[in-house]
Structure formats: structure tokens, C-alpha cells
Amino acid sequence: MTEALTPQTAPAPRNPAPRNEDTAAGFAYAVAAYLLWGFLPLYMKALALVPTLEVLAHRVIWSVPVALAVLAWRGRGADLRAALASRRMLAMGALTAALISVNWATYVWAIQSGHAMEAALGYYINPLFSVLLGAVVLRERLSRGQWLAIGLAAAAVAVLTIEAGRVPVVALTLTLTWGLYAYFKKSLPLGPNQGFALEVLILSPAALGYVAFVALRGEMAFGSAPGVTALLLGCGLVTAVPLMLYANGAKLLRLSTIGIMQYIAPTMIFLTAVLVFAEPFGGARLIAFPMIWAALALYTASMFRGRAS
Fold this sequence. Notes:
Layout: H1 24-45, H2 52-74, H3 77-84, H4 87-112, H5 116-137, H6 144-164, H7 169-187, H8 192-216, H9 226-233, H10 235-251, H11 255-261, H12 264-276, H13 284-308
């Protein structure tokens, strides 16, 4: 005769489903990441006299030891070694590395050349682009409010294009590269910290080659002045730390929570552009930005309605 299992003898599930809830640790990680990203324009503006490509190269080079140190601390070095031995993982990592490098270069150039407000616009539009990407590529059904939000954002871009006589290239480049990076990153079967380490390792030969090239030409900013050298050395920390904080925070928060919090960074960039960098805010921008904010409000409301239904 078989005995019935009592509560004391019943086996526990081997892989309990993760709880979809907000945690204090996740909130702290995410806030720290977005605040660091929000203050990043001040850091990059301090490097305004350093060529954009050299700043990009140092962001890559000095991110490598930070990323490897984090993997060593967490005991995940074997994951990275396995990824480096896989052609498929290297190909996927090369794609995400290419997208994030274009995003970084565009962002640095925008801040250095007085286009911080356009950078803020790009990151405001990004969540709406991600929603559109889900509808087009993944065939996700969008609500009427989400379609209206996307339409408002497109109209805002049209307003800026008509007023300037050109499309807002910086904003759209940042939107497309970050949105596609996030999309393909989800397909990379590797943890966020390991994935970041893989990306900067893939980019490091080109970064080192560029630094060697400018050094041979006698045009290297690194080593030209103590302040500049210290800022370039710090590029690894200001690049790697917020990305890793964000990756860990996203795992410990609900999607709707992290979705709302992503507005922190572009809002800080926008305020920095207006109040610190004194970039003009008038004309078409005075029309387009409220349209974007209204679009984000519609998107947020529809997201919460979707969770409640």
C-alpha cells in the first residue's frame, strides 16, 4: 500500500516560478542606474575637447577590466569563456556590440556638440519605438492608446523635421540603436553581465587599434593633461556600472515599474540641456516635446490598463 504524502514529506518544486513583484533592491538598482545616466551629460561635456572616437575607444577599453572584475566577483567567468568559444554567440555578440557602439558614439557626439536636447528626445521616443517594434516584428497587438501614443511621437518628429528642414538624426539614431540593441540582447542566451563583458571584449581590438593610431600620429588626448586622463580612465566606470545596475534592477522589478522609471534619465538630460548647457527651447521644440510627453502619458496609462485587465 502506498502512503499519501503529507505536507511534511511532499517534495518542493525544483524550479519555482519567479515572482513578478517589485523589490527594494530592484528599485535601488534601477534608481542608481538612471541617476548615473542622467548625470552622464555633465561627464561627457567635460570631455568636449576630446574627439568623439577617442572617448568611445576609452569607454570600451576601460569597461573591460570593470566587466571582468564583476564576473570574477560573481564567479561567472566560465559563462564568458563558453561564449567566446561559440561562433553563434560571437556573431550575436558582435551584432549587439555594433549597435551599442553606434549608440555610444552618437550620444557622446550629441553632448559634446550641443545637441543634448536631441539626445533626450531620442531616449524619450525609445519606449514607443520598442512598442512599435513588438507590433511589427513580434505581431503583438497594440491598444488604441498605444497606437495614438506612437502617432503623437511620429507627429512630434515631423514637427521638428519641418522646422529644421531635416530629420532629427541624432534622436532617431539613438532611438533605433538602443531599441534594436535591447531587442537583440533578449535573444542573446547569456546573462546581462556576461553579455556586456562579451560586447566590450569584441569591441576592444578596434578600440585599442584606434588609440594606437592616434598615438602614432601624436594626436592622443590621453596623457595630455591629468584631468583629461583621469576622465578618460573613468569612462569604464561610468559606462559599465549603470548598465550592470540596470540589468540587475530589471530582474527584480515588474515590467511596468521599470517602464515608468526609464523616463528619469531623459528628463534629467533635458533639464541639463536647458538649465546647464543653455540649449534653446522654443519654436518647434516647444510644440514637439509636450507632444512626446503626452504620448508617454498615453503609453503609460495604456500599460497600466493592460496590467489591470
